[in-house]
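protien #1 (seq + structre)
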Amino acid sequence: MLRRQSLTWLTIFSLAISSARLLIRGHWRLCICSTRSADGLDKLNSGNVHHKPTLKPLQRRWVQPPKSNVNCLRRLPLAASLSLGRGLKTLPLRVARHNTNAQAVAEFLAKDRRVSRVYYPGLPSHPDHETAKRQMSGFGGMVCFDLDGKYDRAERLYNRLDIVKRAASLGGVESLISMPVLTSQWGHSDDQLREAGVTRGMLRLSVGLEDAPDLIADLDQALG
């Protein structure tokens, strides 16, 4: 179990802040407390429904603020409820494995001269490492690394991976990788990329539950 149930409370805190902001703006928000990691299959997303008090009564009848978390869950379709319930049973175990695997992968990449920079809060080189150490017992499964800002190098690694799959998703049991310039920053100019802190040689890796040595070996051979 994560220290002080940090995962649960961080989720609750984030939802509370988000809902409060919307309420101040005159919006109600129906929040379904779930993430891609919750079901273990990176297929379950949180859902949001918004409306302003100025909507017609007929519209408001369909979108009412939940009176409790129980009511919120009742609004979930049966299939989604079952998927979320099954996933939450193994969530602490999976998160612990995500943490240890990502730490091992990040440390490998940080020591490799073929990699110019690694972004992972579990590394002392990360600017927020000390804050992360105080707040968390694990540092998550997301690792970002850069290959000298070179698109051709990133593309080569991207195409050579075997165990790690190419997909714009995260939080599943399998390891997935994506290139920001082909997904979240698609079509951005060099100035926009620079402002976002993204380079054309950057890759984002969602570390899964495979054996860490196998993941490291796959990255090693893909780096060439």
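ok now protien #2
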Amino acid sequence: MLGSAGAGAVGLDAEVDVALIPALPSGPSDDEGAALLEELLAAGAAEMHFQPIVHLASGETVGFEALLRGPAGGPVGSPLPLLAAARDAGKLAELDALCRASALDAAARSGLPDTLTWFLNMEPEAAVRFEPPTEPTAGLRVVVEVVERELGAHLPGVLGAVHRARTAGWSVAIDDIGAQRDPLVIAALTCADVLKLDMSLVQQPVGTRETYLLAAIRAYAERSGSVVLAEGVETKQQQSWAKLVGATYAQGHLYGSPGPLPRHVAAPSEPLPTGRSAVGQDVARGSMWTFGPTPVRPVPVVLPVGSPAASGR
């Protein structure tokens, strides 16, 4: 997810999470990034910031997304050199796992209500080596996010990782949904519990394709039991639009920028309903079809009549 992040951020004041790695250009690693990577892996800890996720109807904070940052005040304030160094060194999976472990450790030590939900990113390129840690996840409500971009090239590994996440009791979210041509195919294959709308569908004027796409996402969510979360909400107008297109939850600078966890958050009266996807629940019951090593029974994707996709336009 991209959004204003304040001092130490990259480019357009952007906060960058580990799920953006596939979009980064390859090239020689930055010396500082490579050195910091080795330090982080040796220390076994990464600096994570957290952005609140809210329930649109009540305004209550229901969870946080963990985002990787370079050390505050250090030579690499942005995570970009760090992420590029991990890719170049073939240590993307190690950094990916370290980010999740560090976020879980911070969540477990925070003393915040156990009804909050924690969103952790999984890099598709590293998914084949994804293993949910057994500690300190006990008692935490966890959603693993898979970014839609570049997912197709790593689909078998992602599907295996999704199955392992569900076996551990975690739920699954598709991040930046709507950024690619066939987002609901990915949602169905991963049995997503949470559909996180790409911020372009929230922040920019929508045309015919986007209108039909939003209607299809809303219909899929209602059919499957998934919930819709709007990303990049920065204004009251965008908040109203998010509600109009069927989002129940939202994330963005209107509600808080990424940063250290607060000392106090009120327990939400209605926790984010993780694990309610009708298809995702079948994993526990063992009533899934098999796709390679991974159980899959996709929900049929039904597009609105007359949509460009449905009519072949």
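The first helix runs from residue 31 to 43.
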